[in-house]
Amino acid sequence: MASLTEGGRRPIRLADIAKAAGVSHGTASNVFSRPEIVREEVRERVKAAADALGYAGPDPKGRLLRAGKVNAIGVATTEPLSYFFDDPFARVMMAGISEACDATGAGIALVSAGNEEKLAWNIQSALVDGFILFCIEGGPRLVELTRERKLPFVALELGSQDDTVSAISIDNVAGGRLAARHLAELGHRRFAVLSLAFADDSTGLVSPEQVRTASYTGTRDRLLGYFEELSRFGVDTAKVPVYETENDKASTRAGLETIFASAEPPTAILAMSDRIAMVALEWLNARGIAVPRDVSVVGFDGVPEAAICEPPLTTIAQPIAEIGRRAARRILDFDGTVRRETLDVELVVRASSGPPPSIA
Questions:
Q1: How many CA within 13 A on the CB side of residue 309?
Q2: Helices assigned H by DSSP within the chain
Q3: What is the DSSP string of 45-92?
Q4: Are the beta carbons of 153 and 132 closer than 8 angstroms?
Q5: For residue 87, what pLDDT is reported?
Q6: Among 30, 232, 233, 322, which residue carries the largest CB count within 10 Å?
Q7: Hey, what long-range contacts does 9-13 have (CB within 8 A, 24 or more apart)?
Q8: Which tens digit of pLDDT belongs to each residue from 77-122?
Q9: What integer pLDDT is reported at residue 3 of this predicted model?
Q10: Strand, helix or coil for residue 34
Q11: Exposure string (b/e) for 131-167, b if CB count within 10 Å is 16 or more?
């Protein structure tokens, strides 16, 4: 970085150091970029001149930009920065991304902001070779902002059929079917769904119209999978309450309060994330509602915490870390093509699911 001269005048430049040390501009540059090819006595003379003038060295950003690559990936979300550390799904995803970056020595820049103005600035100013987008909420805007950078990007959980966007996702319909079939085969017929977002800035009981017009088709597809399978078992899905949460404690607890205020509360809860499901387990346990004796709970994600909560959570496991690894490699090995991948999921049965009270 260039340093200001005494009194705040123009910055000291490499040419000033070369002149003070009595060497060429190229030799001075080599002292900072390729010191092994410069004689020791010349290196010392140039460094002494730099110290005397207060010069800290060339700006690394300029060197990286001239090379056309900074060897770093931006991971972007509209969620607060704490999301990357608090959310169990995000932590596993970041582990996969980190593994791929470690293999090539690439860095990671976390890009997030609580409002659109700051997010736009953070994306525009990030020194990265491409972006991985966590399209949990604000996905369309996140894609729009990233397109403006004209850098490669991969969307995760985009929930969009836009074929011009590279994306890695899972078969949400198949996952929904697996979860619903498991519970229906156990004998459950009274269900409730705690969902992820269908649209931005929306929570509460969901109407059929909200499902049809969902911004996030990943959420819609999980519900579609649930309902397709439940219908096969004779369940009237029009009577199944669907409560849209923000994938956090407050909105999940509000949903549970609403659902269990019913005259006929559910014997089975289909939760669209393990985070939602684990909040539900805490809420039910605190009220003496035994899981799975009174109510069964099935999550969706397969995060490590699901195996050690109380009781251990039955869930639809997706290959979270593998998604992260593939996304990172897409950016690191970008070849100019747009590719969309859909990965399989699997049912992992644990102690949070069992027969309904009438059968147990």
A1: 26
A2: 14-21, 25-33, 40-53, 60-67, 83-86, 88-104, 116-125, 139-149, 172-185, 208-212, 217-232, 249-259, 274-286, 320-332
A3: HHHHHHHHHT-----HHHHHHHHT---EEEEEESS-TTHHHH-HHHHH
A4: yes
A5: 92
A6: 30
A7: 12/53, 12/54, 12/55
A8: 988 889 899 999 999 999 999 999 999 999 999 998 777 788 889 9
A9: 46
A10: coil
A11: bbbbbbbbbeebbebbeebebbbbbbbbbbeeeebbb
Burial grade of 339 (CB within 10 A; 0-12, 13-18, 19 or more): exposed
- Helix (H) and strand (E) counts for the chain? 14, 15
Confidence band, pLDDT 50/70/90 cuts, at residue 142? confident
CB count within 10 Å of CB 249 equals 15
Q: Which of 163, 129, 124, 162 is nearest to 146 (CA)?
A: 124
Contact of 87 with 21, CB cutoff 8 Å: no
The token duo for 73 is: 């990936």
Q: Cα separation of 266 and 280, whole Å?
A: 13
Burial class of residue 247, CB neighbours in 10 A (0-12, 13-18, 19+)? buried
The answer to whether 274 and 348 are in contact (CB under 8 A) is: no
Is the Cβ–Cβ distance between 17 and 40 less than 8 Å?
no
How far apart, in whole angstroms, are the C-alpha atoms of residue 181 and residue 314? Answer: 13
Dist. CA 165–CA 186, nearest whole Å = 40
pLDDT of 2 > 50? The answer is no
| Domains, the chain | 3-58 (1.10.260.40), 70-169 (3.40.50.2300), 171-319+344-348 (3.40.50.2300)
Any residues with CB less than 8 A from the CB of 206 and at least 6 apart, and which? Answer: 195, 198, 242, 243, 244
pLDDT level of residue 64 (50, 70, 90 thresholds): low
Q: What is the DSSP letter of 109?
A: E
**Cβ-based burial of 324 (10 A; exposed 0-12, middle 13-18, buried ≥19):** buried
Rg (CA), the chain: 27
CA 213/CA 223 separation, integer angstroms: 13
Q: Are 100 and 329 in contact (CB under 8 A)?
A: yes
